[in-house]
């Protein structure tokens, strides 16, 4: 099992904890015998049974509420919302209940839940099944947000997310489910620790999710032109590894931030603001953000390709400031 | 009526305690001692009291914005409650929650709640947790008539019924969603009728008769403990005050108010106890006095308690992360 796809790594992360702890349970729409809409939970129903791998009605509000109630009373639920877009339907429970209960109740309640939200476009799923809404979650105090870009990170972050006593929004990119790599290290990856996916000295490209891969492709192209990019994947959006960002900037003095979110109001904007406020003196060039166009995700592949950011956009951005 | 003498005594004490607490909160709010919003339970005491008399310490409840009565009935400490209303460091939530967010996990109180209809599905989660942990606990979900128009009501009752969860849904039909009367906010009279949609028992009872709420919930709770699934109980009652303190309630017709005041659950139960020779005037007066003392003590405790240290403002956002406080 040393070679794993991103999807298998998410599944293995959940399964490792479910084997160890009866209190970890999984529920969501069609996660049971059907194996999940994307197949992420395939085989888990057979291994853990219908009590712990539980199909729910199509009721996202109830899925999130059920996770809150279960977490408050001794379980460690893993809830799946089939698409991050459906977070809208369960938003009260996520934002007003899960995120705030510990604080509102003076620290008297623990909220160990994980909600998985498949995000991202590029699969022709159009406006209501392709968004990148992670900034909605990072905006809310009380939530933690992770976004793995590789199978190893997917597994390690899943373990830490389940172990965490706070609500964690686990963002996974649906177009990356088939990415494969060797995952022999089955240890947890702490939340709040970023990773340098490529070492370089000329410019830091901070990227999340699928844009990590687009940025690595861009770095390859730019290397041919003598420009060395450092690609930094924060992996957790909150808590954010600002130390790693600082360390990289102290070397490159230039930064491009690449995420798949519509650019207006994106989490990339938050990262840019942190850099501008705290590390302005390190910068030799303006911060550049790469995001999706400020329109809904369109259906037709030729339109979707224009709307979503890609490696070429990263190449262009880097060239603007190097 | 099959309650024991002890349960009668408990229920009378509980109703009086809620009334005394609420009346005091009303006065202290008027004095400006209590900031924010308070939603009082005056007039509805028989619901929380009758239901919670059937509960154990390890059972759960979810509550509402009008939650003081539920919390007292489930065993909440009035000192910590009053201190929380005053925004003090010794309050249940260390001054961070206030009236609408009091919780006590050690007593199964999963929180009052500022979002109408949010408790239905939290109760479902507690019910699932009970089922998977294989205990015989139950969760009571308290909610108002207006919350049955939220989608969460449908989602929660549906999920609880298909999974046969040990949840009892207790609707406090006080006939108003803020200013909108039930006749205007839904086209049915008995909310209990909605149970049919979920294939679960639905019963409507006189919510101003504590013996009726006690009996109906006793049966539903026993059913839930046996793994037979949820019940919807509608308790018809009336709030004497406005939606919140400061709302004069002018939308409530005078005749209607008068009729309901005559059905006030506390004098009614008092008469019942005396008439049936269960308690004497002397017994009852003793309880009245001790309850009044307890609430006075609670106010004294709240008054004398310190304000929260401002550095605590960023504590308990997460179990393990505390961000910095702004320097001024």
Give a verbal description of the structure:
The complex is a heterodimer of chains A (322) and B (328). Chain A is of the alpha/beta class and 322 residues long. Chain A has two domains: 3-182, Rossmann fold, CATH 3.40.50.970; 195-321, 3-Layer(aba) Sandwich (Rossmann fold), CATH 3.40.50. In chain A, 38% of the residues lie in helices and 20% in strands. Chain B has helices spanning 5-30, 45-52, 68-73, 78-85, 119-133, 151-162, 182-185, 210-225, 254-261, 265-275, 281-304; strands at 60-62, 139-144, 167-173, 176-177, 180-181, 202-206, 231-236. In chain B, the strands form two sheets. In chain B, strands 1-2-3-7-6 form a five-stranded parallel beta sheet, sandwiched between helices. The longest helix of chain B is centred in the N-terminal third of the chain and has 26 residues, at 5-30. The radius of gyration of chain B is 20 Å and the shape is globular. In chain B, 42% of the residues lie in helices and 9% in strands. Chain B has a single domain, classed as 3-Layer(aba) Sandwich (Rossmann fold). Chains A and B meet through helix 3, helix 4 and helix 5 of A and helix 5 and helix 6 of B.
């Amino acid at each position: 099992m040393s070679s794993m796809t991103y999807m298998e790594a998410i599944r293995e992360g959940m399964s490792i904890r479910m084997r160890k702890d009866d209190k970890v349970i999984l529920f969501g729409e069609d996660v049971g015998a059907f194996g999940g809409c994307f197949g992420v939970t395939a085989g888990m129903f057979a291994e853990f049974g219908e009590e712990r791998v539980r199909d729910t009605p199509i009721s996202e509000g109830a899925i999130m509420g059920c996770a809150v109630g279960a977490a408050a009373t001794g379980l460690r639920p893993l809830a799946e919302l089939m698409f991050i877009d459906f977070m809208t339907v369960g938003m009260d429970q996520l934002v007003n209940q899960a995120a705030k209960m510990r604080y509102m109740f003076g620290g008297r309640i623990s909220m160990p839940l994980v909600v998985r939200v498949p995000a991202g476009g590029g699969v022709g799923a159009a406006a209501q099944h392709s968004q990148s809404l992670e900034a909605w979650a990072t905006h809310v105090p009380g939530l933690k947000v992770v976004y793995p870009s590789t199978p190893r990170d997917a597994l390690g972050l899943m373990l830490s997310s389940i172990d965490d006593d706070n609500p964690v929004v686990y963002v996974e990119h649906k177009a990356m489910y088939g990415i494969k790599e060797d995952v022999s290290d089955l240890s947890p990856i702490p939340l709040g620790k970023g990773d340098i996916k490529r070492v370089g000295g000329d410019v830091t490209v901070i990227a999340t999710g699928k844009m990590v891969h687009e940025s690595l492709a861009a770095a390859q192209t730019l290397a041919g032109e003598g420009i060395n990019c450092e690609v930094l994947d924060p992996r957790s959006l909150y808590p954010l590894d600002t130390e790693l960002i600082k360390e990289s900037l102290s070397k490159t003095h230039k930064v491009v931030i690449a995420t798949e979110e519509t650019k207006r109001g994106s989490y990339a904007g938050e990262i840019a603001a942190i850099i501008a406020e705290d590390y302005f003196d390190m910068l030799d060039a303006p911060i550049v953000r790469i995001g999706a166009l400020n329109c809904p995700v369109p259906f037709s592949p030729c339109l979707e390709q224009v709307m979503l950011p890609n490696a070429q956009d990263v190449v262009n951005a880097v060239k603007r400031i190097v | 009526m099959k309650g024991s003498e002890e349960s009668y005594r408990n229920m009378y004490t509980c109703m009086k305690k809620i009334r005394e607490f609420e009346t005091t909160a009303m006065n202290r709010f008027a004095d400006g001692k209590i900031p924010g919003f308070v939603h009082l339970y005056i007039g509805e005491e028989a619901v929380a009291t009758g239901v919670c008399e059937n509960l154990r310490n390890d059972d759960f409840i979810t509550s509402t914005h009008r939650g003081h009565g539920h919390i007292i009935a489930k065993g909440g400490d009035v000192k910590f409650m009053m201190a929380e209303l005053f925004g003090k460091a010794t309050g249940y939530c260390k001054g961070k929650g206030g009236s609408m967010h009091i919780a006590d996990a050690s007593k199964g109180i999963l929180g009052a709640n500022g979002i109408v209809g949010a408790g239905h599905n939290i109760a479902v989660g507690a019910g699932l947790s009970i089922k998977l942990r294989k205990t015989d606990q139950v969760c009571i979900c308290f909610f108002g008539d207006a919350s049955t128009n939220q989608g969460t009501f449908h989602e929660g009752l549906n999920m609880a019924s298909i999974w046969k969860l040990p949840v009892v849904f207790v609707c406090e039909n006080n006939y108003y969603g803020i200013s909108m009367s039930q006749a205007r906010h839904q086209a049915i009279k008995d909310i209990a009728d909605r149970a049919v949609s979920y294939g679960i028992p639905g019963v409507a009872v006189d919510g101003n008769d504590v013996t009726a709420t006690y009996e109906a919930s006793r049966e539903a709770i026993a059913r839930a403990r046996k793994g037979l699934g949820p019940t919807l109980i509608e308790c018809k009652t009336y709030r004497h005050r406005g939606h919140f303190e400061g709302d004069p309630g002018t939308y409530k017709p005078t005749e209607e108010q008068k009729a309901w005041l005559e059905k006030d659950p506390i004098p009614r139960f008092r008469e019942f106890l005396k008439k049936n020779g269960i308690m004497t005037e002397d017994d009852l007066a003793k309880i009245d006095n001790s309850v009044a003392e307890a609430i006075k003590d609670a106010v004294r405790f709240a008054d004398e308690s310190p304000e929260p240290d401002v550095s605590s403002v960023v504590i308990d956002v997460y179990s393990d992360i505390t961000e910095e406080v702004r320097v001024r």
